[in-house]
Amino acid sequence: MQLSIERAALLKALGHVQNVVERRNTIPILSNVLLSAEGDAMALSATDLDMEIIDETPGRVEGAGQITAPAHTLYEIVRKLPEGSEVELRYSGDDPRLQVVAGRSKFNLPVLPAGDFPVMSSDGLGNRFVIATKDLIRLIDTTRFAISTEETRYYLNGLYLHTVVEGGIAKLRAVATDGRRLALAEMPAPEGAAGAPGIIVPRKTVAEARRLLEDAGESVEVQISAQKVRFDFGRAALTSKVIDGAFPDYVRVIPQGNSRILIVDNGMFARAVDRVATISEEKSRSVKVAVERGKVVLTVRNMEAGQAVEEVEADYEGEPFEVGFNARYLLDVADQIQGETAEFRFAEPHDPTLVLDPADPDVQYVLMPLRV
Questions:
Q1: What does the pLDDT look like over 13-30, one tens digit per residue?
Q2: Which of the listed residues 86, 110, 179, 199 has the most CB atoms within 10 Å of its CB?
Q3: Taking residues 5-20, what's their average pLDDT?
Q4: 168 CB contacts (<8 Å, ≥6 apart)?
Q5: CB count, 10 Å around CB of 330?
Q6: C-alpha 196: how far from its chain's center?
């Protein structure tokens, strides 16, 4: 195998695939990236056995072939080469090492046979649809913060992507929850999405797909089966197993009759929460929210750090009440609000609170209150 490739193109492709590779691997081949040179391009592939990313980049191929090399090492070498460099990759059976040459720099890297590299099959990916890149970014960005990190409830460790039919209209919906908060975003279902099985896309897959979306074109092709999901971003493609489990009946958690409505300037409210949370206890991060006519009073008391109180003007005309929230959760939701205002819908202080974005009617957030 022998080819020349521009540093920027190689760095971009390596950057796409090397994040899949775990830093510590008990299986040596999984620390490597598969390099395949053929025609006028090189394909790079990396996997952790649960997810695989393949990217392709143009190059001047003088000798076709395949070999695997240490992913992170190769990425760091290319990253540190001067901008504008021309990188030459050479491998022959005579020397069991991959030569990386750029100008006066020369590296020899250990290799493992390409035949030992595990390839993830795309068989059985039946349901196929095309979604606008900006729409997929929106579905991910407005929900992924609520994905659980507790491994005991593994079925919450991902984004639940599925279609629903409401009022005769099919919608593609993304939902995430960790049991203390819930985020939901939806859009009209693209052609071909209706009837696809609901899948739980793992947290790591969601993160990698979001990174690849930065360099995607105007649309992404998605293929879904009950066991796998595949995203095609153009030159790059991501294939991943899905979480084998049942996502809870989240619809029951979304409040329907919360009648106490508070509308507040989202930016002012978020900054005020951030300020008073400065002295909150690290574990609970609790903040008391006292809702009164025309204002919200935020209070944090900490036996060691003292007390913080701040008032924020708000649109509210009902009876006063108090409720507690995790400050971090309030700020996470505020980060997703696209409009200038946020709408809170309360019931009783111990009941779930619904948060809406007046600028985007297709998102909903649910927050469980704390005792304060």
A1: 999 999 999 888 889 999
A2: 199
A3: 94
A4: none
A5: 26
A6: 21
Task: Say how far apart CA 207 and CA 203 lie, in whole Å.
Answer: 6
Q: How far apart are CA 353 and CA 181, in angstroms?
A: 9
Task: Name the token pair of 104.
Answer: 């006066």
Q: What is the pTM of this model?
A: 0.91
Least confident residue range of 1-15, 229-243, 273-287: 273-287
For the segment 195-239, what is each residue's pLDDT rounded down to a tens digit?
889 999 999 999 999 999 999 999 999 999 999 999 999 899 999
DSSP string, 114-150: GGGS-----TT--EEEEEEHHHHHHHHHTTGGG----
Residue type (1 letter), 307: Q
Q: Which two tokens stand for residue 2?
A: 């022998």
Number of helices (H) and strands (E), helices first, in the chain? 6, 25
How far is it, in rounded angstroms, from Cα 282 to Cα 263?
A: 28
Residue type for 132, please?
A
- For each of the domains in the chain, give its residue range(s) and CATH number, in order of start: 2-116 (3.10.150.10), 127-252 (3.10.150.10), 254-367 (3.10.150.10)
Provide φ and ψ at 114, rounded to 5°. Answer: -65, -30
| Residue 31 host element (H or E) | none
Q: Do 258 and 353 meet the contact criterion of CB atoms below 8 Å apart?
A: yes
Tokens for 49, please give them: 């056995």
pLDDT of residue 372: 67
